Amino acid sequence: MTTVLRASGVRRTYRIGSLLSGRHGIVHAVDGVDLELHSGETLGIVGESGSGKSTLAQLLVGMERPSAGRIELLGESLHTMRGRRLRRARRDIQLVHQDPYTSLDPRMTIGAIVREPLEIHPAVVPRGDRTKVVAELLEMVGLNPDQSERLPHQFSGGQRQRVGIARALALRPKVLVCDEPVSALDVSVQAQIVNLLEQLQRDLGIAYVFIAHDLAVVQHIADRVAVMYFGRFVEEGDSVQVYDQPRHPYTKALLAAAPVPDRSARHRPPEIVLRGEPPSPLDPPSGCHFRTRCWLAEDRCATDDPALVHSDSSAVACHFPLDEPLQGATHAR
Fold first, then answer.
1. Which stretch of DSSP H or E encloses residue 227?
2. 205, 259 in Cβ contact below 8 A?
3. What's the pLDDT at 270?
4. In a domain, 58, yes or no
5. NCBIfam families from the xrefs (predicted)?
6. Inter-CA distances, 153 with 13, 106, 114, Å
7. What was the pLDDT predicted at 288?
């Protein structure tokens, strides 16, 4: 398959300082991430809040510049491009925002919102065809084109997210980065949006980076999954493999904590209670960053930082990876 997006050793650091607290330091929001996304596939990225998922999303679409590393879109380095080349490349990767209530301009009609990218990039669609294309985009995401003159506040959260998806599709991108696209929606609406994204992928061949903290949603949509902790990928692999046989203790803890439809079910993952709180980004632990919360940690974990080691179609960053299948595991796709 064709690689449409690649990140190599990507880092993003921020200098933090406060005159009131007197605390200063450097936060490694994204710390050496490698990823590949192929045409027509979905890479799911999961992790707790603060793990660096949204910062990574902003880096991938060019809203932030990496402190180190390289991001390639369709084989070209995104962050060495300038002028027309950069403008053209940005058409190929678009972002679907988390919050449909704040990501749409309340003063613009939904038709104008979807049309705006076509005005910014006039070469994509001739001026005379844009009204027709906007209507087609609205219909593609399940909205009535006759409502194009309405304002965002006249729509539900799920409908607003459909508008956001239509806007993201206007430039015919090869990649959509979906940053928690359903977390602000009711559960029933979440399923509708996920189903819509899957249908669009089948119809258009588009590739997704799908970021979420809800493991059940990612399990449903992702072909491959990367688990992020403290700015790093600690495990990645085929979706079925990661969900059925997690190898990193953090992945296993996330899956064990995920809600299941029937909590009295005979076969379900045993609950795992992580020790302590996540460490401060200003004062990360030595060695493995997860060791202060890990029930398997040994002396080596305090001194040696585990690398992400690849084997076959999976990878794990752990000195003592797990080998047992997760109890009650169910196949993903």
1. strand 224-229
2. no
3. 61
4. yes
5. oligo_HPY (TIGR01727)
6. 37, 7, 16
7. 96
Question: At 57, which CATH number?
Answer: 3.40.50.300
Q: What is the pLDDT of residue 21?
A: 60
Residue 49: alpha-carbon gap to chain centroid: 12
Burial 223-239 (b: 16+ CB within 10 A, else e): bbbbbbbbbbbbbbbbb
Strands laid side by side in the 314-316 sheet: 93-96, 175-179, 207-212, 42-46, 224-229, 232-238, 314-316, 309-311
- Cα 11 to Cα 247: distance, rounded to the nearest angstrom: 24
Other residues' Cβ atoms within 10 Å of the Cβ of residue 328: 15
Q: Domain count for the chain, please give it.
A: 1
- CA 218/CA 65 separation, integer angstroms: 27
pLDDT at 274: 76
By residue range, what is the domain housing residue 64?
A: 3-40+47-92+224-316
Residues of the chain with pLDDT under 50: 262-267, 329-333
CA distances from residue 24 to 16, 115, 285, 287, 289 in whole angstroms, order as listed? 5, 44, 17, 22, 20
**Are the C-beta atoms of residues 28 and 11 closer than 8 Å to each other?**
yes
The per-residue pLDDT for 257 is 80
Bridging pattern class, strands 207-212 and 309-311: unpaired
Is residue 136 a part of any domain in this protein?
A: no
CB 227 within 8 A of CB 242: yes
The span from the CA of 178 to the CA of 197, in Å, is 10
Name residue 100's amino acid. P
